[in-house]
Amino acid sequence: MILPEAFIEDIKPYLPVQELKLFVHALSHSEQTTSIRFNRAKYTGRTGLPIGWNSEDGVYLDERPNFTLDPLMHAGCYYVQEASSQFVTHVLRSLVKEPVTALDLCAAPGGKSTAMLSVLPKGSQLVSNEIDRRRARILSENITKWGWPNVSVTCNAPADYKSLTHLFDLILADVPCSGEGMFRKDEGAIKDWSPQKVKECVALQREILDSIWPTLKPGGILVYSTCTFNVHEDEEMLAYICETQGAEALEIPTEASWHIHPPLIGHHPCYRFMPHFTKGEGLFMAAVRKNGNDDEQTHSHKGFNKRKSVSKPFAKNDRNKTIIDLKKIGPTLLSQLDCEATIELTEEGTLRAIPTGHKELHDALMSQGLYLLQSGIEMGTIKGRDIIPAHALALSIVRKESAFPTVDIDLDTALNYLRHEAIVLDADAPTGYVIVTYQSHALGFVKNLGKRSNNLYPQEWRIRFV
Known about the structure:
About 25% of the residues lie in helices and about 25% in strands. It is of the alpha+beta class. Helix 4 runs parallel beside helix 5 (about 110-120). About 45% of the residues are buried.
């Protein structure tokens, strides 16, 4: 691997000569690591070497398996996440001790959002946002597989949030960057890199931070991160936040054995993961606290002008012949969940259960016309007099075990199911809507007709190769 000369020249003033040699060699010659993070709401097993800063949930693997062919990944039992990126779990465990309303601003593909759901205090709620629609669908898929109910997925630009003044206690801004930390992992990142791209990223990062800052409550925390090495997008951007917004950079307790690199410039505390120093890919992370008083509009949402209502008392089927009373079916749907919630019908005809603790935030997002891909627990869609249960319901951690019968299937059958192929259950399997499981972990629904089963796994998620 040949690194861009301009990249080396840019970082050269900030590293001693010998360290620069070690850094360049590690980046261009050493092998990347493989790591995963477990979803403890679904999986309590353990395998692999614990990651120091996330020893509760994260492990290094000796080799990279074919994750696509592991049904447990599709069931949301774990997430394949680079070890350095898992540092966010330690940051949040260190700084957040009470329930919060949080925003993951640039969230796709979902690694940090699923981490936030796992470690934030009980009662917290999350908005997971991605501006790019294609990537937002991938984000939505991964959030669905994780199965937590207290989250909404949006597809909006940061500026779209401006009117939600002082809404969030916590914002994670893992901003678009020049991607130098991905050089070892993706040679395409080298081809895309240029000094001009660094300048463009700096301008974009400032724009994003300026747009989102008003939505953070005074006393709230912004976690800023990149997967790049240069000081312009890292330490200089941290200084920009502190100087222009009067923010306070926060110390995060670390251990020497983690080998986290100190700042290259400046006096603000920040945390660098560099391949010659740390077992992981490139990452920069820092946390700041917003100072000031909450004198302006708060997060009560009472002053917002609603553009539309998502609650409907009745729903028509696709042929407009059968009218279903949501007040009648609501208790049946809610009986499938182990949480208090409100049933709503989207304009697309999807039934959602919005947990009581998430309702105010959900309504605030809707009132501002933000584009919600999903919110709470998707319960199903109406077809005639039937409700086809949603895949999200099968994977939800608050679905009652008694809500649907389950049938455990072997590996070959599970892979056929994940390919969206027809499968046949045992003759004694119950008919109707059944959740198929692998090693007792839910994969999704089938409608068992006896001699065959209709595969209800989302077709757009199907395994396309082996």
